[in-house]
Amino acid sequence: MRKKLTMLIAEDNERNRTQFQKIYEEEYHVLIATNGCEALEILQKEDVDIMILALDMPCGEGEKVIRQMKKS
Fold first, then answer.
1. Residue 29 carries which DSSP code?
2. How many CB atoms are closer than 10 A to CB 59?
3. CA distance linking residue 68 with residue 43, whole number of Å
4. Distance set, CA 1 to CA 4, 13 (Å)
5. What is the pLDDT at residue 28?
6. Would you say the pTM of this structure is higher than 0.70?
7. pLDDT tens across 14-70, in order?
8. Partners of 39 in the beta sheet?
9. How far apart are CA 34 and CA 40, in angstroms?
10. Helix, strand, or coil here: 25?
11. What does the CA dihedral 6, 18, 10, 27 come to, rounded to 10 degrees?
């Protein structure tokens, strides 16, 4: 059995998070972040292969995550 890739879902809308998780949880090891700060914490601790990132989270947090990812 092959190891599942890790997916990070960073989405502030609970319904959207749940839907994405249901769609991908069989194929990926899914990590959840409810805001940009949580997403950045997870990215520092975990090896993430793919990410679904909401850009329109409050306070521009999605864009903040992208800027931080570019720096590192």
1. E
2. 10
3. 10
4. 9, 33
5. 97
6. yes
7. 999 999 999 999 999 999 999 999 999 999 999 999 999 999 887 778 888 898 888
8. none
9. 11
10. coil
11. 20
Letter for the amino acid at 11? E
Q: Is the dihedral angle over the CA atoms 54, 45, 59, 69 positive or is it negative?
A: negative
Distance CA 28, CA 47 (A): 13
* Alpha helices (H) in 9-60, listed in sequence order: 14-24, 36-45
Phi, psi of 46 (to 5 degrees): -120, 150
Instruction: Output the CA torsion 33→38→61→68 (10° steps).
Output: -120
In angstroms, the CA 55 to CA 64 distance is: 9
Contact 16, 60 (CB under 8 A): no
33 touches 67 (CB < 8 A): no
- Rounded Cα–Cα distance for residues 55 and 15 (Å): 16
